[in-house]
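hey can u check if this looks right to u? its 190 residues, i copy pasted from the old doc so theres a chance i mangled smth
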Amino acid sequence: MARKHCLKKILNDYCVIDTETTGLSSVEHEMIEIGILRIRNGKIVSRYSQLIHPRQAIDPFITNLTGITNEMVEHMPYIDEVKSMVLDFIGNDVLLGHNIRFDINFLNAGFDMEIQNDLMDTLQFAKKLYPELAHHRLTDLSNYLHLISNEHRALADCMTTYQLYETIKQTMRVRQLQPEDLWVSLKRKK
């Protein structure tokens, strides 16, 4: 199936999603944690957080980065055991994330299916709204905008991403911008 473009909209109802993984490749590595926030009218109404038992050992580098150890996931469910809970939780909501394709690729691989929900990426918005930054990693944006700091844990990163998106919406209101203003084609600029 062809890749969908991420939506470029201002929404008040969505789910923020983040995963922690054993590495960067959704083909070679696995999820070790999933975090999700359900947002309604711009407010958090429910949360989902689950450690996942991978079929491969967690590398010490990943443990150092996330704080997630092999012992912590030893008695946790495997990814296929949480699939229905995650899919029920997200329903048909738009899924929002920072570099969302990374998380969706891991979900698709772990669930052995393609997630059909529409996607939105705060990274795309941040690059347009804050071009003065050299990097647009979640940590960089969190520091720049004085948001809660992310901890490379799924639910904490969801909180930071939620705050980032709400800050993006506020910045756009103050600057009187609509999403289409951020993605003006070069032809229209001339």
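The beta strands are 14-21, 31-40, 43-51, 95-97, 119-121.
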